[in-house]
Amino acid sequence: MVTFRNVNEKLPEFFSKYYQWFFFLALTLILALAWFNKFMQDDAFISFRYAQNFVEGKGLIFNEGENVEGYTNFLWVLLNTVPFFLSLDVVSYSQILSLIFFLGALIFSYKLSFLIFQCRNFSFLVLVFVGTNYTFSAYGTGGLETSLQVFLITWAAYLALYIISTKTYSGGYFFLFSIITSLSLLTRLDSAIPYFILYPALLIPIFSELPGKREKFKSIALLILPCLLIIGGWFLWKLSFYGDILPNTFYAKASATSIKRGIAYIALFFYVYSFFIFVLMGVFRFKEVFLFSKELRVISLISLLWFLYVMKVGGDFMEFRFMVPIVPLLCILFVQCIRVLNDKRVKMALALIPVLVSPVHAYTYHTTLNIESIRQLHEHMYLDGWPEIGKELNKLFYSKDNEVVIATTAAGAIPYYSRLTTIDMLGLNDKWIANNGIIIGTRPGHQKTAPINYFIKRNVNIVIGHPRYLDKEKFTFSDLEQFFPLKNFNRELIPDEAKVIEIPFGDKRISAIYLKKNDAIEKAIQNREIIAYDLER
């Protein structure tokens, strides 16, 4: 529950008198804005597919019989098993659940800023900065674990700094912090980054201020043991079920990361939101901004470490998703930049920048540096029609008696709705490609693929690649290169019986390679449900 302390603040009398009403009105408007900005992305359906297979008793798997950890959000996948147990719509459920965690992140952003500033007006400004940031607002939905992760990280930062600031060295608080740490790591392993700062920040006062070895030992045990037991048990299960502690996605991404791309990712984020103004202020008034208090020093170190991590992994292909977990911390630092100024007019002007620039960014940003805009991510679902493609494939080919295998780079909604065995052409859900695939670039999540003989070996019937429609009546081998991300496509490996097919969905069509014969596909061709074209040799 949010509490308000009486401190000496220069607030307008009316605003001060009805402050809690203004606070809850702001929360309501921010939630409404997040719902207005709601979207759904293809990667969310990977988590949904794992959750659905788990509920059906197949295990946390992508394809039946293949134990591959192609997700990085274990706790989020488990939370999304609920709609399958209760026969609810998983898309709506995930958006609403994400919005609940979004609200929690907002509340702890406010509580954390109030803990630091001891001032309601500056804390309120942090809430406005965080809540109106388009990236933060949009990922209040999206179908992925982003809101859950930022909620847990912000909660952990608040709890740790509360313990340090108030010197409340309670065993209950240490235990709670350890549980939050566990939940963070179960959500995403990269949530460990803030804890490289928060744990030492907690251990230092335990060693220096708590009396007696017994009290020190008890506090350290409560701080560390619960997390070790939970995460250790999880790792042991992963090792026995998947054969590895690290997710398969690590191997698909780790070998082709680009620090240069990561730097560009962070720089673009600061540029589109005009945050570079605050960076310059922070540089010129370094001590007053970053070193003003121990709490701000902790937040600054977490932010710096997170930047180094994002640089190392090369950022992300989704619009600034990897920046969301530290948006609350950044906004606190930005407000501190404003707080140290003396001129009220300059303060007001700077306070308006993040609020005014955010909607401009939302409506003007297009894919840059291969970083897809949130709008484009959403369009894959509801303009390009990937869910409809999956549903049509399910209608045409899903059968327990006659397995049709597809291969696609869009490994979310199409596999989820089709229910067909799917080869993830980018290797996130495929062990062989993740470990042995050919490197095709540095774009995160799109760094590896396999040669065509691998798909033949895996008995792939239909190669969709990136869903597209080729408006042609005659196809040659050169046309087939558009279905494979490889620069040097070996057309000689294409079987003689291969054809190009058109699969209708709604009032649209996609083109695909019919690679290996299958009775269900042959029947669909005979019934004119799909159209097949011969290849010119």
Describe the structure.
The structure is a single chain. The protein has 537 residues and is of the alpha/beta class. It folds into two domains: 339 residues, no CATH class; 153 residues, no CATH class. Helices cover 59% and strands 7% of the residues. It is built from 26 helices and ten strands. The strands form three sheets. Strands 2-1-5-8-7-9 form a six-stranded mixed β-sheet. Helix 6 runs parallel beside helix 18. It is globular, with a radius of gyration of 26 Å. The N terminus is likely disordered.
Describe the SSE topology.
Blueprint: H1 13-17, H2 19-36, H3 44-55, H4 74-79, H5 82-86, H6 90-117, H7 120-132, H8 134-138, H9 146-166, H10 171-187, H11 192-209, H12 213-241, H13 248-253, H14 259-272, H15 276-284, H16 286-290, H17 294-313, H18 327-339, H19 344-364, H20 374-382, H21 386-397, E1 405-408, H22 413-418, E2 421-424, H23 431-436, E3 438-439, E4 448-449, H24 452-457, E5 462-468, E6 475-476, H25 477-480, E7 499-505, E8 508-514, H26 519-526, E9 531-533, E10 535-536
Helix pairs in contact: 2-6, 2-7, 6-7, 6-9, 6-18, 7-18, 7-19, 9-10, 9-11, 10-12, 11-17, 14-17, 15-18, 17-18
Give the integer mean of the pLDDT values. Answer: 92
Shape: globular
What structural category characterises the helix and strand content?
Answer: alpha/beta
Largest sheet: 6 strands, mixed
**Which spans have pLDDT < 50 for at least 5 consecutive residues?**
1-8
How widely separated are the two ends? Answer: 70 Å
The strands making up the biggest β-sheet line up spatially as 2-1-5-8-7-9
Number of H- or I-type helical stretches: 26
**Total domain count:** 2
* Beta-strand percentage range: 5-15%
Q: How many distinct beta strands?
A: 10
How large, in whole angstroms, is the Cα Rg? 26 Å
- The helix content, as a percent range, equals 55-70%
